[in-house]
Amino acid sequence: MRTDEGRYEAVASRDARFDGAFYVAVTSTGIYCRPSCPAVTPKRANVRFFPTAAAAHGAGFRACRRCRPDAVPGSAEWNVRADVVGRAMRLIGDGVVDREGVVGLAARLGYSARQLQRHLTAEVGAGPLALARAQRAHTARLLLQASALPATEVAFAAGFASVRQFNDTIRAVYAATPSDLRGPRSARSASPGRGEGGPAGPGGLVVRLGYRRPYAAGEMFDYLARRALRGAEEVVGDRGRRTYRRTLRLTRGHGIAEVAERQGADDAGWLECRLSLSDLRDLTAAVSRVRRLFDLDADPRAVAERLGADPVLAPLVARHPGLRAPGATDAHELAVRAVLGQHVSVPAGRRLGETLLAAYGEPLPTPSGGLTLLFPGADTLADASLHELGMPAARRETVRALAAALAAGDVELDAGVDRAEAERSLLTVRGIGRWTAGYIRMRGLGDPDVLPAGDAALRAALRRHDLASSVATTAEAAWAPWRSYAAHHLWITAAPRAETAAPAETARAEVAPLHTARRPA
Fold it and tell me: Which residues pair with 249 in a beta bridge?
């Protein structure tokens, strides 16, 4: 899709694989769409292509009401790219511009606001304000269609500075008023996408989180169920109809997310998520973090094309189509849990996490089912004794040192951090070695290209495929930039008896974290 001719072919074939990768605008109607829009294919002479919805807005086009192009899955490119543009796009998606402004975004990236504007405009056709404005418009539409909030409250919850700005933006983006978008409840559409609203019940907002097919939902829910910490997470229901529930620590408050499993014949291209938030201004961030946890912006066909070309991985890719690399809703929490899981199996690491949560977790004002606690913040753990855990003193000190570094900002793990720099800073914490730093980079920072070759279960899988001696060469040459997915394909084939035992790092006594043990064949 690097040429306009290729993009037009995707539009003509209504190829949903490219929804979110680019947008198509029609000059004769003034409307822009997703590539898979079911409308009549426009003439090639009347078509323009844009890398982002914000770029289409800036050129004077409004969003199609039929295909809802503002609600498509995000581009997988932003998770792969490690440059300033990729980092900026991840931070904007997390709502940083709404919370800290363009100056705050630029400061996080180490650039001036003018430099950042120049980089983004050149690469994606819009600056940070325009990108954030497009995101606010989508959040506002979601709230209008999924809640009964007055329009004034919707405006401020979506991040607008004034009602006038809200009204002007809605008219510019959708060629409609807020009342037009809200419409009669019976007439509301609910097309799948990045975050599409549905009728809200008493339990919160219902959001449909779109993804690119295929999606291995069963494997994802299995993975999360084995690691769920009682009090902060739970998986309820029978396989194929499960619901994953967890508490969220957000910037302005807290929340609860519930995501329902869909698979097989029920695969509609989206996961239904119910969000209950103490402050609706956290909606953008909450949606972004749930999407990262479930790896919903991935391009499974690109991954399969790369990994499926390898003779060893090809049958694994065919056996688990759409297998994703689970992320995290909170990188700080993930980092602490990784340290807790050193030297122990998955069940043992889970028990340590539950003990930590029971001792230092923050109680929810109103419990919800089995969800009663928020995972403790870094500032709480930095001064905690941790004697309740029964771990060796050295590992307790590692948890405290990591928490102190996170609280002080010496280690930064936000959505847009330079991943290589974050890994280097993690390695300065006594007791954290390369395996744990790599695992945090893989899950906490959503890096799709991490292969922890020293992991015990991974080594077992590689030996089974006679790859142990050539893994480094094979991985670099054939699996990049999707090595994280290669690791998950190999892990899922590991023998059930495999236990965690990453190579001992003599300087740090490091072994594999909790996610490497007892994987089902």
Answer: 254
Q: What is the average pLDDT across 355-361?
A: 98
Q: Which of 71, 121, 56 has the alpha carbon at shortest distance from 129?
A: 121
What is the pLDDT, as a whole number, of residue 16? 87
Given a cut of 70, is residue 188 above it in pLDDT? Answer: no
Burial class (CB in 10 A: 0-12, 13-18, 19+), 148: exposed
Tell me the Ramachandran region of residue 518: left when phi exceeds 0, alpha when psi lies from -120 to 50, beta otherwise. Answer: left
Helices and strands per DSSP (H, E), number in the chain:
23, 12
What is the location of CATH 1.10.340.30 in the chain? 331-516
The tens digit of pLDDT for each residue in 27-71 reads 999 999 999 999 999 999 999 999 999 999 999 999 998 999 988
Between residues 103 and 453, which one has the greater pLDDT? Answer: 103
What lies within 8 Å, CB to CB, of 14 at 6+ separation is: 35, 36, 37, 38
Cβ atoms of 256 and 247 within 8 Å: the answer is: yes
> Which of 4-8, 179-183, 389-393, 404-408 is predicted with the least confidence, judged by mean pLDDT?
179-183
| pLDDT > 90 fraction of the chain, expressed in percent and rounded | 74
pLDDT at position 516 over 60: no
Measure the CA–CA gap between 140 and 126, rounded to whole angstroms: 20
Q: In the β-sheet with 196-201, what is the strand arrangement from edge to edge?
A: 196-201, 204-210, 270-277, 254-260, 243-249, 233-236
| Fold designation for 331-516 | Endonuclease III; domain 1 (1.10.340)
CATH architecture of 4-68: 3-Layer(aba) Sandwich (3.40)
Confidence at residue 199, expressed as pLDDT on a 0 to 100 scale: 46
Q: What angle do CA 104, 107, 108 make, to 5 degrees?
A: 90
Determine contact, residues 134/57, Cβ cutoff 8 Å.
yes
pTM value?
0.89
Domain with CATH 3.40.10.10 in the chain: 4-68
Q: Do 143 and 196 form a contact (C-beta atoms < 8 A)?
A: no
Q: What is the pLDDT of residues 195-252, one digit of tens each?
A: 665 544 445 899 999 999 999 999 999 999 999 999 999 999 999 899 999 999 999 9
Strand 196-201 and strand 62-63: the pairing is: unpaired
Report the SS3 class of residue 307.
helix
Q: Which residues are catalytic?
A: 33, 455
Q: Is the confidence at residue 306, as pLDDT, over 50?
A: yes
Instruction: Enter the tokens of residue 398.
Output: 């590692």
Residues 6+ apart with CB under 8 A from 46: 26, 27, 28
CA–centroid distance for 126 within its chain: 22
